[in-house]
Structure formats: C-alpha cells, structure tokens
Amino acid sequence: MVQLSNATLSQLPEAVKRPGYDRSKLTPGIVHIGLGNFHRAHQSWYLHRLMEAGLAHDWAILGAGVRAPDAAMRERLLAQDCLTTLIELDPKGQSAEVVGSMIGYIPIEEGNGALIEAMARPEIRIVALTVTEGGYFIDPATKGFDASHPDIVYDAANPESPKTAFGAIVAALKIRRENGTGPFTGQCCDNLQGNGAILRQTVVSLARLSDPELAEWIDANCTFPNAMVDCIVPATGPKELELVRSLGIEDNCPVTHENFRQWVIEDNFCAGRPDWDKAGATFSDDVHSFETMKIRILNGGHQVISDVGEILSVKHISECMEHPKIHALYRKVETEEIMPHVHAVPGMTPDAYVDLIEERFSNPMIVDTTRRVAFDGSSRHPGFILPSVRECLAKDMPVEGLALVSAAWARYCTGIREDGTTVEPNDPFWADLQIRALAAKDTPQAWLDNRLIYGDLADEPRFAGPFCTWLSMIHTQGLDAALDAYLG
Fold first, then answer.
1. Cα separations in angstroms, 98 against 90, 253, 277
2. Closest to 363 in 3D by CA, of 403, 397, 316, 433
3. Is 259 within 8 Å of 234 (Cβ atoms)?
4. Alpha carbon distance 401, 389 (integer Å)
5. With 0-12 CB in 10 A as exposed, 13-18 as middle and 19+ as buried, what is 422?
6. pLDDT per residue as tens digits for the range 301-342
7. Contact call for residues 404 and 381 (beta carbons, < 8 A)
8. 19-50 CB burial, b ≥16 within 10 A, e <16
9. For 394, how many CA atoms within 13 A lie in the half-sphere containing its CB?
10. Residue 313 · residue 418 · CB < 8 Å
11. Which residues partner with 2 through β-bridges?
12. What DSSP element (H or E) covers 201?
C-alpha cells in the first residue's frame, strides 16, 4: 500500500497515471472555494490536463473553505500534498489517475483573514466557487439578493472580518483596489442558470451594503462568466475508500466519477485565463442554451427519480433506472413535459440528450445515492423542476407528470419511507418542510402554500389541481398506485 504524496508518486502501481509535470515549479493563479468531490473531478481535472500538456503551470489552484467542516478536508488533503486519486467508473472498465493541479490549501480561520490575504495577491487572477446551488443568498420569492440573512447582515457590519466566502471576496477586492492590483474574475462552478450573473449579484449586492463605491468598482471591473458544468460525481464513503485501497493506494479523499465531462464557459475573464478549451472545455457565447438543456434534463431528471426512489427505498440512481416504474416515469416526464421546451445546441439534440442522460443514470458502476441527489430540494425543485412547469403552462401543455414529481417531494418530506424507515433531515429547511408535508397529508394545498418555493403556482389550478390529486392518492393508496395511474 502506497501512501499518496509527492514523495511516493514514483511508487504508485504502474496502471495508475500520475502527474508528468514538476509540481514544485507550479505557481498559483486560482483560489477555489469549496473543495468538494465535484471540483476535484471536474475543474481541477481540466487544469491538470493542461499542465500535462506543458501549459498553465502558473495557474495552479489554492484550495479554500469558510466552514468549520472544511478544516477536516484541508487536513486530509495537506497530508497527501493536495493530490487526489480520480477513479473513472464505466461499465467497460475502470481507470485511475492522480491529479496534481492543486498545490495548497489556505488556513481556515475566523474572520477569513488568510483567505482574504491570499485572494488579494496579484498572482491570483481567478477566484472560483463550488458552494452548492443554495449557497448564494438568493431570495426564493424574488430571486434577488437576500440581504436579510443573518450571515449577510453580519458581513455588512463587519466587512474586514466576514463569515461568508462572498464577504471575503469583497474584502480582498477592496485591498486590490487600494493597492492598484486590479480586479480578478469571479467564476461560479455550481449548477445555477446564469451562475456568473448570480455570483455577480451576490458579491456586488453585499459590497453595496458596506461600501457603495467599492460595489460600483467591482461591478465595472470584475467579470463573472456564466458556465455550465457537468459530471456525475458520487460522494466518497467506505466503498470508495476501499476501492482506492484495492488499487494499492492509501488516499483519504479519493473521488469516483463517470466517463463524461462537459464544461461550457463564456470567454469573459478580466485578468486572463487558462486555455481550458485545449483540454476539452468549450468557450461559447450561448452558454444559456447549454445550461437549459443540462439543468432541465439532467438535473431535472435527477429530481424526477430521486424522491420517488427514496420513498420506495431504492438506494441508488442506477437502481432507479432498473426499476420499471421509476424508469418509465423518467422517460415519460422527460419526453412529454421537459424536452419540448429545450432547444438543440451544437452537436446535441434534446431527444439525443435525454437518451444520453438515461445511459449515464443507468451506469451501475456509479454508486450515486438517491439521498445525495434528493438533498436540498428547496433549492433544486425551484431551480430544476418548476421552470419546466411554467413553460408547460405558458404553452397550455399538461403538467401531470411534473405535478406528480412535486407531490412525491412533498411525500418524501414527511420523513417516513413507505417501508416505515425514517428519512434523516435532508434539506437546509427540513424542519419547515416536514411541518408543511405533514399538514399536506390532509390538506395538500398546505404544501403549495409555501410561496417562497411555488409563488403564484400555488394559485394555478392547472398545476395545483393535479398536484393535490396525486398527493392525496400517494397518501391514501401509495406511491405505486400513483405511478400506475400516471403511466397508464
């Protein structure tokens, strides 16, 4: 067993690829906040590929975090020199490589002083984030900035020692403006429609609360490119740790992933960028179309099947696709209520993309849990499902399937599966969702009256009607009966 580190790279098993570049000569150009599995299998991998080609050696990544749990990840990664073993899982076989594009992890401390100092350094030209869809302080009703959140109120009052990543970004940009260092690019890598515009909204709006002049400078000088990111990356647990050990490697934070990646980015970088297109990324002025296809069909498809799978105690996404009724639900909702509102993009039609996602979801090698995919429904349903509902209604098309999907989410949030097992809290607003879900057992409209999520859809009989019918049927006859009724 080889303990992963710079010193042991030459000792790794022959079948495992390792960095071919001299990591000691890399210099940082990017600070990335949120070093989860997705970043290390996606953005970090693209940069690693460039480095393997002899490029971008001055764009290495400094990892960062602002939450207390991030400290444990920092400790694990620093112990292995910030190296990560990526294991590609495909029905045709697996392969492994060690990625070395990250060279340090900024200390995590109260007030985020070290993070602010690092982002203020002139060699840092991009600050990137993967902090989950629900992490951008978006008012769920207006989709504008939520200035009332306690963390935002704190950061506005304490701009020199903020709690949030966005407060730290504002503080670092203030130093850069004062020192004449200039702006950096803020790069959102989360699954949000218009993710760059959302990051701009959060950073500029927060800055405006404490320093309006600085806010104007940021808005005028920093760039926030929109991007679409895609790769299915399961959480790491005992199975993944055992898998990397079976390769002869002791890696305390390995990552498994599918044999598919996509990254479509607006070419809008105020301080330069790596040539990610030379590693397979796409620069495009029409990111929105790629985003819509991916968010509606892939992310929406995940929500179509994950809550249903959880209720029926189907643990993994690939097992959902093996379940005849869940698979049929996916196919019918996607083709009849989601796909008709998605436009083709270069090289991909909507129907071909539905087939591609079906194949990817069905990959039995990817042990992606329904619980992981069902997490944070209060962000994911409004972001991934309800836009398709609104498109259907605008075109006077039925929403029976999407209403059933919403009803399944309401049933899931009661906290009990149909086999009687307990669903552990799985949403930042779980307590409130559970109260509403339990009330909706007798009065289904009680769920839709959550205006922060449903807005005027709660009053739309073409959606509320089938929703209430489905939820009543699920509670009185069971989810199986509702699936049978929908599938005909």
1. 18, 12, 21
2. 316
3. no
4. 10
5. exposed
6. 999 999 999 999 999 999 999 999 999 999 999 999 999 999
7. no
8. bebebeebebbbbbbbbbbbbbbbbbbbbbbb
9. 8
10. yes
11. 249
12. helix 195-210
C-alpha torsion sign, points 115, 287, 321, 475: positive
pLDDT tens digits, residue range 423-451?
A: 999 999 999 999 999 999 999 999 999 99
SS3 175: helix
Name the amino acid, one letter, at 351: D
Quote the DSSP letter at residue 299.
I
For 225, the 3-state DSSP assignment is coil
- Residue 107 in tokens: 């200390």
Q: Which residue has the tokens 């490119």?
A: 225
d(CA 201, CA 380): 19
> pTM of the full predicted structure?
0.89
**CB contact burial 189-212 (16+ within 10 A = b; e otherwise):** bbbbbbbbebbbbbbbbbbbbbbe
User: In sequence order, what are the residues at sequence separation of 6 or more whose Cβ sits closer than 8 angstroms to the Cβ of residue 334?
Assistant: 297, 300, 301, 304, 354, 357
Nearest CA to 102 out of 18, 20, 31, 195 is that of 31
CB 164 within 8 A of CB 129: no
Q: What tokens appear for 380 in the block?
A: 């994911």
- 269, 403 in Cβ contact below 8 A? no
pLDDT digits (tens, 9 = 90+) for 100-114: 999 999 999 999 999
Q: By the 8 A CB rule, do 120 and 42 touch?
A: no
pLDDT on residue 140: 75
Q: Which residue has the tokens 């959550």?
A: 450
| Per-residue pLDDT tens digits for 399-427 | 999 999 999 999 999 999 999 999 999 99
CA-nearest of 452, 476, 454 to 464 is 454
User: In 10 A of CB 476, how many CB atoms?
Assistant: 10
Length of the chain, in residues: 488
Strands 282-283 and 262-265: parallel
- Please give the Cα distance from 200 to 219 (Å, whole number): 7
- HSE at residue 132, side-chain half, CA atoms within 13 A, is 15
The token duo for 227 is: 């991007």
HSE of 67, CA atoms in CB hemisphere, 13 A = 10
